[in-house]
Amino acid sequence: MLTFRRSVVVAATVLLLFFVFFSDPKSISAKDLLHDVELEQKLQKNRQETESAIRELQASTSRADDAQERKIELLEAQRKNLEKQLQQLRRLPPDAGVRTQLAFQFPYDTLNKFPAYIWQTWKQDFDDPNFDERFKYHVRSWDEKNNGFVHEVMSDQTARTLIRYLYMNIPQVIEAYEAMPENILRADFFRYLILLARGGTYSDVDTEALQPIPNWIPDRIDPMKLGLIIGIEADPDRPDWDEWYARRIQFCQWTIQSKPGHPVLREIVAKITETTLQKKKENRLQLPSTKDRGSEVMDWTGPGVWTDSVFGYFNDPVKSGLYYPVTWSNFTGMDQPKAVSDVLVLPITSFSPGIETMGAGGDNDPLAFVKHHFEGSWKPEDERMNSN
Ligand SMILES: *[C@@H]1O[C@H](CO)[C@@H](O)[C@H](O)[C@H]1NC(C)=O
Fold first, then answer.
1. Within its chain, how far is the Cα of 77 from the centroid?
2. Which region is the signal sequence (predicted)?
3. Are 344 and 228 in contact (CB under 8 A)?
4. What CA–CA distance (Å, rounded) separates 230 from 123?
5. Nearest-CA residue for atom 2 of ligand 1
6. Nearest CA to ligand 1 atom 4
7. How many helices (H) and strands (E) does the chain have?
8. Given the CA of residue 314, which atom of ligand 1 is nearest to it?
9. pLDDT of 229-241, one tens digit each?
10. CATH number attached to the domain at 98-384
């Protein structure tokens, strides 16, 4: 029960608390305000003193500063002069050959990674309503198997624009590309050009990805020691092989993986450029309509000149570091991937599974990576063979 005494104590306590909380802050605040003004004045004085000291110091050192500034200007001028001289050294002499210019524009370094690009071309762009449904299925297989890769499916027109851009400093290459009388030649040339400049994987639109691209390299082989990955197209182990194929071992060029600047690509681009400009000079650009048409394409831009370029590289010790001759016999009957110099050669099963000849395994073989459906209407199957 509340007694009188108790209520007096409670009232006194409430009053005391009231004073503590509400009267005290006002007086502290006023004191602080006074203090702040004094402090502000002190700071202002201090700032003025500091600024005038800095001005004095600056005046006394301005002469030294001027000298310093002139020294810096002189060094800058010398640096610019050196830079100019360096640039002149870096520029190629005007008569540098196509090979030198290619090596200069697209240097090769095995220590680079294989770029995560997939390059494909067809008459139309992928989203064009006329783009063939069959190819759409094959093209999508590359996306499904290769998450995170940049996948470009370009129309012939886009490919042309890209090549003009990438090779603008090597006009001979563009001249050769433009001079080609038919798309089949340009489509062949394009794959070497894009891989030389950007690297990655090129594959025809009628190929189907069976496994992710990184699976192509066996665990036992260090990717940093490789620069080019190719597959065997034909290994016709029969006495009359030359009635069917132009080369005893033929490497396919419907699927190729490379790092930018690989010397095999540099060589084939240089060779095709020279051949084409020579034909242009002699007015021999048109493809024959006879049975020689196939073998002409084969040796101008197709698997014939491709296979020769690969063997040319293996047998050039300066480029490949190999001191023993390398011939078709090194690759016949292969059933496992084989690294020769910085080139990984895949067995026939890898890019031609299910052909049921020349020792190829089936589509489910662990080494089956890409299935070629041979539906490219620009390249009838007989054009990859000899004149027969
Ligand atoms: C190619 O085969 C020849 C003859 O059998 C052999 O001497 C050479 O070492 C082989 N080269 C490679 C790179 O396998």
1. 37
2. 1-30
3. yes
4. 25
5. 330
6. 330
7. 12, 10
8. 13
9. 999 999 998 899 8
10. 3.90.550
